[in-house]
Design brief:
Blueprint (H helix, E strand, L loop, with lengths): L1 E6 L7 H14 L4 E6 L1 H4 L6 H17 L7 E5 L4 H11 L4 H5 L2 H8 L6 H4 L1 H10 L5 E4 L4 H18 L7 E4 L28 H9 L18 H9 L2 H13 L4 H15 L1 H11 L2 H30 L3
Parallel strand pairs: 1-2, 2-3, 4-5
The protein binds adenosine-5'-diphosphate (ADP) and tryptophan.
Length: 320
């Protein structure tokens, strides 16, 4: 089985990205074959600052490696280092009905948010389809918001296969368990777009400030509180061991505590949780040559596989 997923480098990764996606990618690297890439071509649809995109792309690689993505198990690369995907994208584009893209919710959402429309933004799901089909991927772990794009990919692959023969493998989405959304500092879903994120490798002083600023209700200290609906408890339980979690839940249900105290404990468990990864990240950042080598080796493997699939598609439709 081949697993593939991509993650956009549109900002530094936050706790929501970790628990909602990255941690699960890392668990899946023990599958038969796994491909993970940094979707910098997709980010070009929304970022137009050259240095920012380049920096965020390398930060993404550093973060993923520091968090445990193992290049001896998974193939890690930058999307733009595999030109075969962009070539395949064109072949797919010619088979994509406009209506299929017009129905995509994520495009409509971005436009509604005021992101200016461009053809790249509109055809985003076709590039995503090429990313997936280029490696004969069987399983694509994604957040719920990306499932529609996998459906688009399957539609395009099906219609290509119908016209030209069995060229593409149809992928299945694997919806990541982010049903319990990681809350942000304002209690809403943590997201770059809401400016409520806590980054995984936040500078310690800033981390403390952000944790201390997490919004709380204004009920008196002595009141008993329901832990499961409280964002601080929800965050705490992501990091804490079972015993710590139970103790904290009991504290909430008993009442008579201050949020300041609970936030301090959250800061502590979260700092401990990422301490080793933080150390690894510092070491990796001091050896960027090594990181670049990993990406280059990953891209070479990715090009080999995608080159075969591209040729199959080109021959099937009469351009080779
Ligand atoms: P953002 O909302 O910050 O722009 P992305 O849309 O780039 O994040 O998300 C990348 C991945 O991280 C997706 O798989 C998404 O489902 C997951 N993710 C992002 N935020 C959260 C969250 N608050 N809780 C759970 N998963 C999340
Ligand atoms: N669109 C995905 C996101 O924003 C990132 C992505 C690009 C992707 N290409 C992909 C995910 C291919 C899975 C497979 O989260």
């Amino acid at each position: 089985m081949r697993v593939l997923s991509g993650i956009q480098p549109t900002g530094r990764f936050h706790w929501g990205n970790y628990f909602g996606a990255i941690r699960q990618y890392i668990d899946l690297q023990n599958e038969d074959e796994s491909y993970y890439f940094i979707a910098n071509l997709h980010s070009l649809t929304t970022i137009d600052d050259k240095q920012k995109l380049a920096d965020l792309t390398m930060d993404a690689a550093l973060d993923l490696l520091a968090l445990g993505l193992d290049p001896t198990k998974a193939i890690l690369f930058n999307q733009s280092d595999v030109p075969e995907v962009s070539e395949l994208c064109w072949l797919l584009m010619t088979q994509t009905p406009m209506g299929l893209l017009e129905r995509c919710v994520s495009y409509k959402d971005k436009i509604a948010k005021g992101i200016s429309s461009n053809a790249g933004l509109f055809t985003y799901p076709v590039l995503m389809s090429a990313d997936i089909l280029a490696y004969d991927s069987n399983v694509v772990p994604v957040g719920q918001d990306q499932v529609q794009h996998i459906e688009v990919c399957r539609d395009i692959a099906r219609s290509f296969n119908h016209k030209y023969g069995e060229v593409f493998v149809l992928p299945e989405p694997k919806v990541l368990e982010s049903a319990a959304k990681v809350p942000g500092t304002d209690g809403e879903k943590m997201s770059k777009s809401y400016d409520n994120t806590i980054e995984i490798f936040e500078e310690p002083g800033k981390l403390k400030k952000k944790v201390m600023r997490i919004s709380t209700d204004s009920r008196p200290m002595e009141d008993a509180k329901e832990p499961d609906t409280d964002p601080i408890y929800q965050l705490f339980s992501l990091f804490a061991a079972d015993e710590q979690r139970e103790q904290m839940a009991t504290l909430y249900r008993t009442g008579g505590f201050g949020y300041g105290e609970v936030k301090k404990q959250l800061l502590e468990v979260a700092s401990d949780y990422f301490a080793d990864a933080r150390q690894r990240r510092t070491e990796l950042a001091a050896d960027m040559e090594y990181v670049r080598d990993i990406l280059a080796a990953g891209a070479a493997k990715a090009r080999k596989k995608s080159g075969e699939v591209l040729l199959r598609a080109q021959e099937a439709c009469g351009v080779k």
